[in-house]
Amino acid sequence: MGQVASTRRAFLTGSVLRENGGHYPPGVTDESVRNCSGCGDCVDACPTKIISLRDRIPTIDFQVGECTFCGECSARCPERVFPPEPATSFAHHAVIADNCLALNFVDCQACRDVCPTTAIRFKPRLGGPFVPVLDTDPCTGCGACISVCPTQSITMTANTMEVAHA
Questions:
Q1: What range does the record give for the signal peptide (predicted)?
Q2: Tell me, which fold does domain 2-76 have in CATH?
Q3: pLDDT in tens, 61-117
Q4: Contact call for residues 110 and 148 (beta carbons, < 8 A)
């Protein structure tokens, strides 16, 4: 029962955060990862080298770099772990913590400079440097912002499905 509830919860929240804190490669789910043989072909195929195997399961390390959604991991996988079409985003988005330099009156815009979708922008503030504003709609969860942050203030959180009431 616990496994089913965990899978249902992950599906409903869009969560692909592993219990040990890592993230699956794009498009991989708790259900599809069960097909993984741990061969490591996805690790070898990743041009940015952000995929590693933890307990024979592919895991993303955004401290190493970003996901470019090239689809090489999916193309090289001999199992049915990845979706048929390469994913174009993760089921998570960036979150900027309070220890961000810019939020603490130190000029830094490293995350904005590397964001490929301009999801991170900076707005003016009286008496201090610009402050970061994250637009979660264009954020693909690629992780480009994570490795460049000097204070490791950026993490990922699961996208949530909002229900509109009529």
A1: none
A2: Alpha-Beta Plaits (3.30.70)
A3: 999 999 999 999 999 999 999 999 989 999 999 999 999 999 999 999 999 999 999
A4: yes
User: What span, in angstroms and rounded, lies between the C-alpha atoms of 10 and 65?
Assistant: 25
Give the pTM.
Answer: 0.81
Cβ atoms of residues 60 and 23 within 8 Å:
yes
For the chain, domain boundaries:
2-76, 93-158
CA 134 to CA 92: how far, in whole Å?
13
Task: Please determine, for residue 29, whether its predicted confidence score (pLDDT) is greater than 70.
Answer: yes
3, pLDDT greater than 80: no
Please tell me the total number of residues recorded for the chain in this structure. 166
In contact, 68 and 143? CB cutoff 8 Å: no
Cα–Cα distance for residue pair 96/51, rounded to 1 Å: 23
Question: Domain 93-158 has what CATH class?
Answer: alpha beta
